[in-house]
From TrEMBL:
The active site is at D129, D334. The lineage of its organism: Eukaryota, Viridiplantae, Streptophyta, Embryophyta, Tracheophyta. One of its GO terms (biological process) is proteolysis. The keyword Thylakoid does not apply. Residues 1-21 form the signal peptide. It comes from the Eukaryota. It comes from Cucumis melo var. makuwa (Oriental melon). InterPro entries: Aspartic_peptidase_A1 (IPR001461), Aspartic_peptidase_AS (IPR001969), CND41-like (IPR033873), PEPTIDASE_A1 (IPR033121), Peptidase_aspartic_dom_sf (IPR021109), TAXi_C (IPR032799), TAXi_N (IPR032861). This is Aspartyl protease family protein 2.
Amino acid sequence: MDFHSILKYLLLFYFISSAASEFQTLTLRSLPTPSPLPLFPDSESLQSSPAAALTLDLHHLDSLSLNKTPTDLFNLRLHRDALRVHALTSRAAPGFSSSVISGLAQGSGEYFTRLGVGTPPRYLYMVLDTGSDVVWLQCSPCRKCYSQSDPIFNPYKSKSFAGIPCSSPLCRRLDSSGCSTRRHTCLYQVSYGDGSFTTGDFATETLTFRGNKIAKVALGCGHHNEGLFVGAAGLLGLGRGRLSFPSQTGIRFNRKFSYCLVDRSASSKPSSMVFGDAAISRLARFTPLIRNPKLDTFYYVELIGISVGGVRVRGVYPSLFKLDSAGNGGVIIDSGTSVTRLTRPAYTALRDAFRAGARHLKRGPEFSLFDTCYDLSGQSSVKVPTVVLHFRGADMPLPATNYLIPVDENGSFCFAFAGTISGLSIIGNIQQQGFRVVYDLAGSRIGFAPRGCT
């Protein structure tokens, strides 16, 4: 083969590779219809995980609302999302000084699992939330409780329930605590950005996950709880703070956990979460965790750029996402936020680049918080520009279904990013779908493994 032939093949390979990095195929699907929850045995018959590892099935909150249409559920999800983002940005705002403000607003933790509480264990649905620290559940007697799917937990029927003394270091770790003058035991309060809250006794209890018992987990036993928490009994906080479940169980699980959230419009299998060394995927690319000196709950990472159609977006600079010394700005990874929010200048540059790359698609009207939508009715698949998030040391090439999503049942699809006037940017769970997101707290890093749900 002569030089010109070799050159021709090299150029052909270059153009094919270049074209492959510029576009990918989006197979069009409708809004997901929630599937009924599997029958959860309230017993020890579940197969146990190894002692040093723990694997859980996760289910989306939509599974608790089977009487609503897919469009109703999607609109409710966006409503919860807006409330949650408000709560997160309020919590991260400079000078903000309320009692504990969790990431969970109006039940927008999005994903939940079933676990046993107490001895003998009573099985309950619990929301899992990387934007919160304190573990809590509703307890009787209830001065005021919201509606949940299971009977309310009665601590007096548990042999392992124990109040925490007011003098305990665990009590002092609470941002908002009190002391029962009669029992001299610790009281807690967790407030939320939408005005809902939970308050009651701070105690230790045994939690049971698939036959694995974890004793003396500090949790809130809430006797007064207000808010719409969509049927779950409470919350399993997965944040970075000292009272979160990963922090409390650090010795047992080596401060490692991961999850993979499935695309519910394409798969009927459940999402999953793994605690322990087995949580680390060999395929994961890691980026360092950054610590916010003013706030220890959230998982901050360094986003340094975004590519659309194989080209870095001009105007998306690392300085737009910088976490300053006062704790302002930055980028967090959050399991409970659905739609990724980017600080306004970065979002505008990304949106304009995507619009330019997708100019062959028929534009549609704006929808809710989405200002870039397309009318794809009557089509089964389309070509869309690729989108890659560039973190420090780790690229995250997004599947097309993670950024162009159905918003109704009439063929309308929208670009699933949004801008925010807040300095805080949030990588949401729509963009995380299909990746195993690895939280290696021992190594102070987060990883992303593509096709991690298999």
